[in-house]
Amino acid sequence: MMKLPKTISSFFLLTFTITLFPFTSYSGKSIDHKTWYGLTDLNAAMHTKKVGFHDIVISKDTYFVAALGKKKTKLQDLKEIWETRSAERCKDKGFHFFVKLEYLFEQVLQGDPSVVHPPALRGHVMNTSGTVYIPMIIPSSRSGPVYASSPIYQSHARCIADPTLLLDPSRLIQVKSVIDRAVEYKWIKKAN
Amino acid sequence: MNNKLITLATCSFLLLSGCAKQATTTEEIDNQLYSNASILDEVTATRKDVNVDLRKIRFVYLETKTTFYPGRFDFYVRKNLSKMGLKVVLNKEELTALILNNPELSNLSSINDPVSQSRLSTLIGPILKIRVTLGLPNGANRSVSVEITDLSSGRRLLELSHNTLVWANFETEVFFPVFKVMNEWLNEVRALRGSEA
Hints:
The structure holds 2 protein chains of 2 kinds.
Chain A: H1 6-25, H2 33-36, E1 52-57, E2 62-68, H3 75-92, E3 97-101, E4 152-160, E5 173-174, H4 175-184
Antiparallel strand pairs in A: 1-2, 2-4, 3-4, 3-5
Chain B: H1 2-22, H2 26-31, E1 44-48, E2 59-65, H3 70-83, E3 89-90, H4 92-101, H5 114-124, E4 127-135, E5 141-150, E6 155-165, H6 170-193
Parallel strand pairs in B: 2-3, 2-4
Antiparallel strand pairs in B: 1-6, 4-5, 5-6
């Protein structure tokens, strides 16, 4: 049997390693460990090759947190990044729980004010009838704009002091469990 | 030996002090909001109406439109609005959730047409709609347009457009000039009518 020269076999081995290395390192939670954390400058929000979080302080117990991904970032990873950052923010303020809000002033606790004005100020319901317009799409000969997109997971997080007041207890997220998971992933260091 | 150590320590201290002087604090950055915006290309303002009371505005409805990373762009604009002092912001998904979660608003069938938007404004309070569009016409050309509308009255308050060729920095050349004019408009409104809560 013909034996390959040493340089050629080394070349094949090197090529094999380079080709397969990215796939092997993508397994589990190892992908974004070092790249996502600490994305703090605002310009990075439009830096599409970075994965990371960004947040906005809305009030003393509410934050808007966004986890920004690259093209192939899994949505589950972004959700966990979002939860980690939200948990960190709430933990810093001494809260043990938080919920993901669907919109900023959502009623999640007993006693939260209503979104809609009192009945006296409401409008009246009108039955409407008339022409129904059906949308038509006329194809154009022009080529369409270049479309580029990447996943993003963004929402308001509201820190909760008393979980018994929550209207829907199934939405409650525990700060400790999220922090523990992030420590397990080696995203953050365990606090002393 | 001691003299050498003292000299080394002094030099290190002086070097570090120099670094500390050059660093900018967050407050300084906020005071100079968009100060490094490009002045080469003017922002065209086709309408500028300061007759609005920001204190009465319930929230900002943010509508962004682009084919270039729409999710990131939506967040980017929201972050800039928060820097300008507009923190209560709802985008299309959030506004849809608000309408679906509140049975009192179930008679609203659309959030796109001006009539429904006006009705929504009547039901839950005055809404300021901010629409920001980023276009990529060709090559390195970029265009940004901003429209601010008071949905309770239907009045268009601010209309801005900015077309530019990006030379070095996407953010400072494309967005900052527009946000600078927006920020100036907000400051003008606040000076006339007082700041929002």
